[in-house]
Amino acid sequence: MIFFLALVGILGVSASGPIMAATAAPALTIALWRNVFGALVLGTPTLIKEPRRFSSLTRLELKYSLIAATALAFHFACFITSVKLTSVAAATALVCLQAAWIALFQWMRGSKPARPILLGLGTALIGVVVITGFDMGVSTEALLGDLLAVVGGALAAIYTLAGSKARKTMSTGGGVKPS
Questions:
Q1: How does pLDDT run across 21-61, given as a tens digit for each residue?
Q2: Do residues 108 and 100 make contact, with C-beta atoms less than 8 angstroms apart?
Q3: Counting beta carbons within 10 angstroms of the beta carbon of residue 15, is it exposed (0 to 12), middle (13 to 18) or buried (19 or more)?
């Protein structure tokens, strides 16, 4: 079952960029509905299983949850707009620099990444340059799409970091407590 769910997840994430680029709806409309449906799918089971969970959030949990939610919403707005302006490959490669942004943000807070992490990030950056390097000269619109994808990656990193802070004391929607 886990293998099947992983496969469905991989296929869903892999197909999302091309599907969003081909959709006639405006980018911000797609971003809005992606967030609404995600909140419904993830929030409804929590409301059913733990109806008081949302009202019992601490100030810190609420703060980091709101930061994460806002960053995720803006991440989708930037990424979905970018796939409509540049190539799906360029937008996806650039937004996937999320790990590099996380390492940079942690380094700025005093946590130096280990050498293997830096080597992996360097390899990823080379791959992104290979994928997107020729895209920058295509048009102003493509360059704007590339920049939005970079910002989308930074926002995804903020979402991940804020979510991990909130997750230190919160249970997941399924009620799994942090270890």
A1: 888 888 889 889 988 998 898 888 878 887 777 777 889 98
A2: no
A3: exposed
Token pair listed for 55: 């009202």
Nearest-angstrom CA–CA distance, 159 and 154: 9
Q: Tokens 């299983």 — which residue?
A: 49
Q: CA-to-CA distance for 119 and 10, rounded, in angstroms?
A: 25
* Rounded Cα distance, 47 and 39, in Å: 11
Tell me the per-residue pLDDT of 144-169, one tens digit each, with 9 for 90 and over: 999 999 999 999 999 999 999 988 88
Nearest to 91 by CA among 76, 71, 105: 76
Can you tell me which residue has the tokens 């280990």? 114
Residue whose C-alpha is closest to residue 27's, from 72, 85, 87:
85
Please give the distance of CA 11 from its chain centroid, rounded to a whole number.
16
